[in-house]
Specification:
311 residues; mainly beta; Immunoglobulin-like; 2 domains; disordered N terminus
Amino acid sequence: MRSFLALLALSLLACMGTVEGEVKDDQSEDDPFGDADTDTDTDAILELSPTAVRLATTRDTKAMTATYTGRDGSEEEATMSCSWSSDDEGIALVVDGLAHGLGAGSAVVSCEYRGLRADATVTVDAVATPERGELVINEVLADVPVSTDVNGDGTGDSVEDEFAEIVNAGKATVDLGGATLWDSDNEIARHTFDSGTTLLPGSAIVVFGGGNASRVKGTHCTAEVANADDGSLDYGLALSNDGDTLTLKSKGDEILDTITWTSNDPVDASIVLDPEIDGSRTTAHDDAFRDPYSPCTLGDGGAFPDAADRL
C-alpha cells in the first residue's frame, strides 16, 4: 500500500511540471508567472542648470545650460538647439543660453527640445541706471514744417510739434526716471522724465515740445510731452532753428548723450543719426528718407527692434 501511495505522489508532481527546489527559466520567486517587464530603458529627460537665476540689475547676465539625456543614458548638449521662451518677456529673456533681465521681478523661462520642456526661474532685483553710450538722441525736429501737425493732436504749432527721439542702443533695460533734457540756451531742464520710466533695449521714447502726444504710437516706442506737470516752463523744448545743442543727462547729472545742429542743417525737416540708433553722424531726414520726420518709427516707417533683436 505504501509503495502505491509513493508512486501516486511522484505521478502528481510530474504532471505539475516541477519539483520542489527547481525554478523554470522564465520564473522567479518574485515573479512566478515570468511576465514582468524586464526593459531597463528609462524615460528621456531635459534639465536646465541652474534652475534658479538671480540678477542684481538688468545689466547683469547669467549663462544657462540645457542637457538632454536619452533613454539609453547618453547625454547631449541642447543649450543652443532648444527653443527658449519666457512667461514674462518684460522681466527676463534667454537668448542663446544667456539669461537677460529686462525688468524687476520674476519670470519662468523654458527650454523645449525633442518634445520635452524644462523650466527655470529668473529673478531680477532692479532696473539698471543708464550709462554713457547706451542712450542716444536718434532724431531731433527743431524746424517744424509750416502747416504740419507732427504730434497728431489736431493743431499745428512750431513749439509744440518739436520733438526729440531717444533710443536705448545698449543691451540692458535702463531706468530713465529723473533724467533730464537740456538745450544750450537755457539754464533750466526742458524735460524731466518721471520716476519709473524705463526703456528696453532697442526701444524709443519721443518727447514733444507740447500739445497732446497720445495719438503718436509705434511698436517699441512711447511718446510724451515736455514738462507736462510744469506749467511755468514756456517754449517747450526751446529748440533753436538757427543751431543748438540738446543734451541728455542722467539723474546724477552725468551727460549721457548730446546732439548738435547748425543753421545750415535741414530746413523743414529733422536731423537723424546715420545709420539710425548706432550711427556716429547725422543727416537730414528728407535726404535719407522720403518723409521729413518720423517720430516713434524708424525713418522708413518700420518699427524699432524688440529687446531680443538687441541682445
